[in-house]
Amino acid sequence: MSPQSGRGPGHGTGWAHLRRWLPALAVVGAVFVLAAAVYVPLTLTSTSSYCTSCHQMKAAEATWRHSLHSRADCVSCHVDPGARNAIAWRLQESKNIWATYLNVSANGMAKQVHPPSNAACEQCHDVRALGRVFGDIKFPHQSHVEMRGLTCIDCHRDVGHTAGDSTTVRMATCYMCHNGDAALGRCALCHVTAPPAEVHPPDYLAAHGAFALQNEEQCLRCHHDKAAFCDACHAQPTPDHYSGTWRYTHGPVAAADTAGCLGCHDERSFCQQCHEVDHPSDWVDTHGETAAKGTESCLVCHPQTMCVECHEQRGIPAP
What we know:
The structure is a single chain. Strands 1-2 form a two-stranded antiparallel ribbon. The protein starts with 10 loop residues before the first helix and ends in a 5-residue tail after the last helix. It folds into four domains: about 20-115, no CATH class; about 135-190, no CATH class; about 205-275, no CATH class; about 285-315, no CATH class. It contains 22 helices and two strands. By secondary structure, it is mainly α.
């Protein structure tokens, strides 16, 4: 062999040996790439940080982190138990991940968030082991779930996404069935101690406004539908409200029935914006300069007729 060739006596044999291993190396490389392509999405989609990485989930994340279920991963509630469901979810989300990285349209891939099923809830909460009395309320979970076909989230709708640790079920939820038609509506059916027949004082119709403004949720425990119950009265103000001069003539009525007014209007924010205006002692003589800039602010409280009558009495042209 010529020295100029630069090839040793074993070169051809080494290259041939390497070529025999190329298919095996290609297979190993392909397996590694495939394993990474599968493992990375599987790992990502098993974490709540993956679910909450979408900006549309920020509100849900905030309430979830403050709920009693903050230690439960999203998939433990929103993906039904079972290997088939787990695989189907992760395959779906793997497509979304790679579509995002490869800048390929993922239209049709994304699905609506699956609400928690009873099977998902019962991974932690055994409906048969739950008691039948909770405080003053009787509620046999098993009969409601198994005999009535309810799902857990029919009653505990926001338990995983509630800003606070309350798991209280509102009476309005019970009333969806226990309205006397779909199911019995007797108080003693659910309440260990039945509420008294008269829970309000005699003057409550007139005086309830202040209480309702402070604690509306307490009212809605029994009066379940705000639109049907409250608006039936409050959406129909008395005819004198439409007289056009009510803001100037309401004083005697308000003095005689202040509680009736406060059923709709808050005294601090509504009444005081006019009634706490403090004019200087010489305002009758000095208000002209302010009124000359525009009478709109004056007419919030005072009718135009008041200006005209006063100016006529003093022989001064009305604004």
